[in-house]
Design a protein that fits this description.
The complex is a heterodimer of chains A (117) and B (112). Chain A has 117 residues and is an all-beta fold. Chain A has no helices and eleven strands. Helix content of chain A is 0%, strand content 53%. By secondary structure, chain B is mainly beta. The chains are: A mainly beta (117), B mainly beta (112). At the A-B interface, β5 and β10 of A face β5, β9 and β10 of B.
């Protein structure tokens, strides 16, 4: 079974500071990994995805994440936080295409990012 | 591309009533997912379909919940009878082998 653990349910940073949201996964097979963002009262929007190509993945809005197999991690970073980054962020894992659970996303509990002026 | 369409966006109903949530996936997507989001439990996958066939319904909480996908462009999630603990935001998402999951805007359900 696959699972995702997001370390820290709340992260607070100052505008312009580094954003680091942590995600560790557990999977018996090579996974696909994702980060989604959810703004208040809205659905989930895909930020970036890892699909077994480059380990450093660049996404939208200046975010990136690095897949580290040895650490089973997929942490999300952004060099300089902006007020508009304030939202809830979800890490998720799924099987590869053809896997028994392909397409079935397992989400972490989410991390609420607060950005202070 | 209109994206995943869900209706209604908000639903308020009384305990015991039947509730039906609707979803239109993105054209060409052959996977459809129903998720529920609550403060206590986060995002939970309820059920998903592939080519209109239910593949995994292990997340459906109990017999009061049922989901159907009569064709490739429409799915429903029904709760009968509804209970206050069913209050949540219900998301529909769709995907294909070549495209990742796109989420709808959600239906916020309140059962009083």
């Amino acid at each position: 079974a696959q699972s995702v653990t997001q370390l820290g349910s709340h992260v607070s940073v100052s505008e312009g500071a580094l954003v680091l949201l942590r995600c560790n996964y557990s999977s018996s097979v090579p996974p696909y990994l994702f980060w989604y963002v959810q703004y208040p009262n809205q659905g989930l929007q895909l930020l970036l995805k890892y699909t077994s190509a480059a380990t450093l993945v660049k996404g939208i809005n200046g975010f990136e994440a690095e897949f580290k197999k040895s650490e089973t991690s997929f942490h999300l970073t952004k060099p300089s936080a902006h007020m508009s980054d304030a939202a809830e962020y979800f890490c998720a894992v799924s099987d590869l295409p053809g896997g028994t659970s392909y397409g079935k996303l397992t989400f972490g509990q989410g991390t609420i990012l607060t950005v202070h002026p | 591309d209109a994206g995943v369409i869900q209706s209604p966006r908000h639903e308020v109903t009384e305990m015991g009533q039947e509730v039906t949530l609707r979803c239109k996936p993105i054209s060409g997507h052959d996977y459809l997912f129903w998720y529920r989001q609550t403060m206590m439990r986060g995002l939970e996958l309820l059920i998903y379909f592939n080519n209109n066939v239910p593949i995994d319904d292990s997340g459906m909480p109990e017999d009061r919940f049922s989901a159907k996908m009569p064709n490739a462009s429409f799915s429903t999630l029904k709760i009968q009878p509804s209970e206050p603990r069913d209050s949540a935001v219900y998301f529909c998402a769709s995907s294909s082998e070549a495209a990742l999951e796109s989420f709808g805007p959600g239906t916020r359900l309140t059962v009083t």
